[in-house]
Design goal:
114 residues; single chain; mainly alpha; 4 helices; extended
């Protein structure tokens, strides 16, 4: 297999650098907007629906914006994950039986006799 020409390699290096800059730029943003959606939101409409439920979200004209940390808290809470408040001590009983009992209790059920 022949080696690409040096000018082709230079072009590829330039493109790779530009792509890396864009990836880092998207990763470092602190605010999500209707024009720059979070990775787990597929449309402006669904973004707007979710922003209406987030107290920190703001609407300016037709554009919604929400801080990244508020979006992440909402996303975790929406998926049922427990979010620890700052300064809280989190202890988890890692046993499978305890987890099953918690889930059953949450559903209003209980284990009868073993």
């Amino acid at each position: 297999m022949s080696r690409p020409a040096p000018d082709v390699l230079a072009i590829l290096d330039y493109i790779a650098d530009r792509i890396a800059d864009r990836v880092l730029e998207r990763r470092e943003r602190e605010v999500y907007t209707s024009d720059d959606l979070p990775r787990d939101c597929r449309s402006r409409r669904s973004f707007a629906e979710r922003c209406r439920q987030i107290p920190e979200a703001e609407k300016r004209g037709r554009t919604w914006s929400v801080p990244r940390d508020a979006w992440e808290r909402f996303r975790l809470a929406r998926r049922g994950a427990a979010v620890a408040k700052p300064g809280a001590v989190v202890t988890a009983d890692a046993s499978l039986d305890a987890a099953a009992a918690r889930l059953l209790n949450r559903a209003g059920l209980r284990i009868v006799g073993r």
